[in-house]
Design brief:
The complex is a heterodimer of chains A (about 180) and B (about 625).
Chain A (H helix, E strand, L loop, with lengths): L3 E5 L10 H9 L4 E5 H4 L7 H10 L2 E7 L7 H10 L17 E8 L16 H4 L1 H9 L3 E2 L3 E4 L6 H20 L1
Parallel strand pairs in A: 1-2, 1-3, 3-4, 4-5, 4-6
Chain B lengths: L1 H25 L4 H12 L10 H9 L1 H13 L2 H6 L1 H25 L4 H12 L3 H10 L6 H23 L24 H32 L3 H22 L3 H12 L5 H26 L2 H6 L1 H25 L4 H11 L5 H11 L5 H40 L11 E4 L5 H10 L4 E5 L2 H9 L4 E3 L5 H6 L7 E4 L4 H14 L4 E6 L2 H9 L4 E4 L2 H14 L4 H25 L3 H23 L13 H6 L1
Parallel strand pairs in B: 1-2, 1-4, 2-3, 4-5, 5-6
Helix pairs in contact in B: 1-2, 2-13, 2-18, 3-13, 4-12, 4-13, 6-7, 6-9, 6-15, 7-17, 8-9, 9-16, 10-11, 10-12, 11-12, 15-16, 15-18, 16-18, 17-18, 23-25, 24-25, 25-26
Classes of the chains: A alpha/beta (about 180), B mainly alpha (about 625).
Chain lengths: ~180, ~625
């Protein structure tokens, strides 16, 4: 049984249609810890030790966030800057995260076909996620295939429900593998 | 008609209070002096609206003192009382004994017989609990060393009244003339060993009842959810103890004080305080008015020099004894002066005791009425003397004290000076010190300075509003001065001094409320901090969170509120003198703010934080 940590980062969950159901379904899965960063650190004052402890206690880390301007919300960047310390997460002495798995769980307004060389966003999602992928690599973590919910602007309630179930299955699979 | 005269009297007393107390307060004289002046005005001396019945009212109003002691007991935890035992017994005991002996000796020297001398000595040794505690409370001085010590002495005096009352009958020379007196309680029919047992039993019953009976009873009464019933029960408790204490010949004030202490740790403490407090306030006010009205100006005018000399001599004598004792108990000069000035008067117990000694011919009636006038005048003078001490003497003494203490030659050159290290300044100071910022602290409370120094903090004693002290504190080289004085008047004074003598300093000021903030903004201070604003907003934020708001949303709402309120504050400060414009603008600001908040929190249609809002995008698709 692998333990999964969801680092949920959304500055305005109260306005989100998609992420609320996603979270609700995630809660149903055993061995999944949801850590709501904006709820814990509304002042951006991240408790580094606590965060590092959480990372050590889990095997798979998920950066769960909406894609804002082809990137994560500000607090997740702050989290990466502060928590993944040199000598702890990377560097010759930094072995804390070696072998753990990590990936992004993203919701994006634009549809999947917009994220391609031919689409109006010009790059693929994976290309936009390059900083995350490289961060994982530098920390000797294994970067998994990201979980994507795309085209959220056009999603209907049943569509959203479907994605939420897909997320639940994704998590169940991660914990049981 | 009785009712008619009752209402007429009430009309006179209440209007006297309502008119004179606010005026006295406005003039900075304090409420006690206001009530006393009101009494003098409606009394026989001036308008003559109150005549002989004033004395009965005085007796009735003394019940206010009983209630005050009950509240003081409630506010005092048993542990604190236990810690005060040295000051109560030592300081209080020595004050009563020394003063009584000295006054008795002087009376004997003036050819009074020894019985009368002892009676006068004992009676005049006592001070006025009502006036002293009310004045100290109003000035917020109860928790200072002098306040605590004054209280300790008064408490001892309250206890001392019991043996003094017991002693009085022994001083009667002409036994045939012994008047039957209501004061002598039913307890006197018992032999003395039984009396002792009854007295101890009464005290024990208050403690036991307070611990085991009163609380469950209050629980039941509170369960009825009838507010007035709880008030009635609280009054019943106080009156019940008063009756019990009078029966066994103890001071009711002492009994209720004890009950208060026993209940101090109970869950009904604050409820009891808030229920009894208005009664206490009214009765005490009535008491002070009666004291004012009872001053016999005809008698004073008949022989002004002897009365005034007696007042001056007695108060000086008592004051000196207090001052010497204060020194002995290691009080700082400023605290000691306050202590001595507070307790130098004679007290209300004198009225009761003198009526007893007069009825029983221990002291001749002519002298008695003279002494009663002396007592009343000394009581009326007390708030005035304390005011003189506070405004005229203490500011000067501050200088002397400074010279006596070598520590106050300040050598450091720190970038920050903090004036006032009370509850506000100490937090600012600790943050700065914890981050290695050199900070010089000035404080005008010698006891606090003493304690903080013992903790190893570099705190200096002195009046920060004096520019020479600021100079000594390194104001010439400092960058910032933080004004965190507890009094806003002093803050304004300090700011003026800084601007005049040290214009290069950046001034940061704590403001008590919005209106103090206006004054500081108006005087050109850029950094004004309202004392309670941040913590109120923090509480509001947490309340939103407890209601289920997202932490980040709640925090941003509070930030927005904060920014808007600060902006409105600056704007309103510029027009606060134009009352009409001020009110209009204030109303508009409030309305605007309301709208802002509504818009912010109402729904996902919010006009704010559009960056996180997908609504408009979704519409485009």
């Amino acid at each position: 049984m692998a333990k999964v940590l969801i680092l949920f980062t959304h500055p305005a969950l109260e306005k989100s249609r998609v992420n609320k159901p996603l979270l609700q379904h995630a809660k149903m899965v055993d061995n999944v810890t949801i850590h709501d960063l904006y709820e814990h650190y509304p002042d951006f004052n991240i408790d580094i030790q606590h965060e590092q402890q959480l990372l050590l206690q889990n095997d798979i880390i998920l950066w769960h966030h909406p894609l804002y301007w082809y990137n994560s919300p500000a607090l997740l960047k702050q989290w990466i800057d502060l928590v993944l310390e040199h000598g702890w997460a990377y560097g010759s002495q930094g072995k804390a995260l070696v072998g753990k798995k990590i990936t992004n769980v993203i919701t994006s307004g634009g549809a999947a076909d917009a994220y391609s060389k031919e689409g109006h966003n010009n790059y693929t999602i994976e290309e936009f996620l390059a900083p995350f992928i490289q961060t994982a690599k530098l920390c000797n973590m294994q970067y998994l295939e990201p979980f994507k919910v795309q085209g959220t602007h056009k999603l209907t309630q049943p569509d959203i429900e479907e994605h939420a179930i897909r997320y639940k299955n994704f998590l169940t699979q991660l914990t049981t593998n | 008609m009785a009712a008619d005269s009752f209402f007429t009297q009430a009309l006179v007393y209440l209007s006297a209070a309502v008119v004179s107390v606010p005026i006295a307060k406005k003039l900075g004289l304090g409420s006690v002096l206001g009530y006393l002046i009101a009494g003098i005005i409606i009394g026989p001396a001036a308008l003559g609206w109150v005549g002989e019945e004033g004395k009965d009212i005085l007796h009735f109003a003394e019940f206010g003192v009983v209630m005050m002691l009950f509240i003081i007991g409630l506010e005092l935890e048993p542990a604190l009382l236990w810690r005060m035992r040295k000051s109560i017994l030592g300081l209080g005991g020595m004050q009563v004994v020394a003063t009584a002996i000295l006054i008795t000796s002087i009376a004997i020297f003036l050819n009074l017989n020894w019985q009368a001398s002892v009676a006068i000595g004992l009676i005049l040794a006592l001070s006025s609990t009502a006036i002293v505690l009310q004045t100290l409370n109003e000035k917020g001085l109860m928790n200072t060393v002098s306040g605590q010590n004054s209280f300790a002495v008064l408490l001892f005096q309250d206890i001392a009244v019991i043996p003094i009352l017991a002693l009085m009958p022994l001083l009667i020379t002409d036994v045939s003339n012994k008047a039957s007196d209501g004061q002598i309680a039913f307890i006197d029919q018992f032999p003395s060993y039984l009396q002792t047992i009854i007295v101890l039993g009464a005290v024990a019953s208050i403690i036991v009842a307070g611990k085991y009976i009163i609380r469950p009873v209050f629980r039941i009464i509170a369960g009825t959810k009838l507010r007035e019933l709880f008030t009635a029960a609280a009054l019943l408790l106080v009156i019940g103890i008063t009756v019990l204490m009078s029966l066994v010949g103890l001071s009711p004030a002492l009994g209720t004080f004890l009950a208060g202490v026993v209940l101090a740790n109970s869950e009904y403490r604050h409820e009891l305080i808030s229920d009894i407090d208005p009664f206490k306030g009214l009765l005490l006010g009535l008491f002070f008015i009666s004291v004012g009205a009872s001053i016999d100006f005809n008698l004073i005018l008949a022989n002004p020099t002897s009365i005034l000399l007696l007042v001056a001599g007695l108060m000086l004598l008592k004051g000196i004894i207090l001052f010497v004792l204060g020194r002995f108990f290691k009080m700082g000069l400023d605290q000691n002066l306050l202590f001595s000035f507070s307790l130098a008067q004679m007290g209300e117990f004198a009225f009761v005791l003198f009526s007893f000694t007069s009825q029983n011919n221990i002291i001749e009636p002519a002298l008695t009425s003279k002494l009663i006038a002396v007592v009343a005048v000394s009581m009326a003078l007390t708030p005035l003397l304390m005011l003189i001490n506070e405004k005229l003497i203490l500011p000067r003494i501050g200088t002397k004290e400074k010279d006596e203490r070598e520590t106050d030659t300040i050598l450091e050159k720190n970038p920050v000076i903090i004036a006032g290290f009370g509850k506000y300044g100490n937090i600012v100071g600790r943050l700065l010190m914890a981050n290695g910022v050199g900070t010089t602290v000035l404080d005008y409370n010698s006891d606090r300075v003493e304690i903080l120094r013992k903790l190893g903090l570099k705190v200096y004693y002195g009046d920060p509003t004096r520019h020479d002290l600021l100079h000594a504190a390194g104001a010439d080289d400092a960058k910032i001065i933080i004004v965190a004085l507890e009094s806003d008047e002093q803050s304004i004074e300090l700011v003026e001094t800084i601007k005049k003598h040290f214009p290069h300093l950046k001034i940061m000021v704590r403001a008590g409320d919005r209106f103090d903030a206006y004054e500081h903004i108006e005087s050109g201070v850029n950094h004004v901090y309202r004392e309670t604003l941040d913590s109120s907003l923090r509480m509001g934020t947490d309340a939103l969170k407890l209601l289920g708001f997202r932490a980040y949303q709640a925090q941003r709402a509070a930030h927005k509120f904060f920014k808007y309120d600060e902006k409105a504050l600056k704007e309103l400060a510029t027009i606060k003198h134009d009352k009409k414009l001020y009110l209009d603008t204030a109303k508009n600001r409030i309305a605007e703010l309301e709208e802002l908040i509504k818009a912010d929190l109402a729904d996902t249609q919010s006009t704010n934080d559009l960056g996180w809002d997908t609504e408009s995008l979704r519409k485009q698709f």
